[in-house]
Amino acid sequence: MTDVQLMILGFLSSGAKTGYRLNQIFGKLMLYYAVGLNQIYPVLKNLEAEGLVEKEVVFQVGKPSKNVYSITPAGQAYLTEKLTGPAVPMDYHLPFLQRVFFFRFLNHDQVLEAFQSEICSIDEQINTLEEMEDTVKEYADTDGEFAYRTALHFLKSLADWYKAEYSKRRQQ
Predict the structure, then answer these.
(1) Whose C-alpha in 11, 15, 68, 115 is 20 to 30 A from the C-alpha of 95?
(2) 110-121 residue pLDDT tens
(3) Distances (CA, A) of 116 to 127, 166, 169
(4) Count of CA atoms in the C-beta half-sphere (13 A) of 138
């Protein structure tokens, strides 16, 4: 099961939703997932084919019909199985780390510039998350707030680690 499948099943557990509404939820609540309609609709189609969600076509006067998706009992059982199953090793495929592996082909200034760029990007992400704090406190439940704090802590730790490495490399 992909992350997007798990998230969609989880969001549908609180009630039926359109693909458009799922996209809004991803946009407002997800801190580190860039998911768009071009990903949501194919996943919904696959989940429907697997019997994990069902689609109801709602006809509207003067507007196009809309598809409303809801989780099936099989989908709820599958979601529960994934949520309570064994821990999954963390995926630490950070694009920056993939690039760092080949920094040996760059000169010293290029390496420092790459570190500065990555640090700036992380700092921007931290600022974005910190700006969301009031919204998270107002709308998130305990689990959502934990996810928010974890993402923020992770980014701050990563920024500190990269800044320390940058300082070390500047002195070389």
Answers:
(1) 11
(2) 999 999 999 999
(3) 16, 8, 11
(4) 6
Q: Which two tokens stand for residue 159?
A: 């920024």
Which residue, among 20, 30, 3, has the nearest Cα to 128 in the 3D structure?
30
Q: Which residues touch 56 (CB under 8 Å, ≥6 apart)?
A: 16, 67, 68, 69, 70
Q: Find the helix or strand (DSSP H, E) in which 54 lies.
A: strand 53-60
Indicate the residue type of 70: S
Question: Of the candidates 80, 50, 48, 52, which has an alpha carbon nearest to the alpha carbon of residue 67?
Answer: 48
Residue-wise pLDDT tens digits, 147-160: 889 989 999 999 99
Q: What is the pLDDT of residues 8-64, one digit of tens each?
A: 999 999 999 999 899 888 776 655 566 778 889 999 999 999 999 999 999 999 999
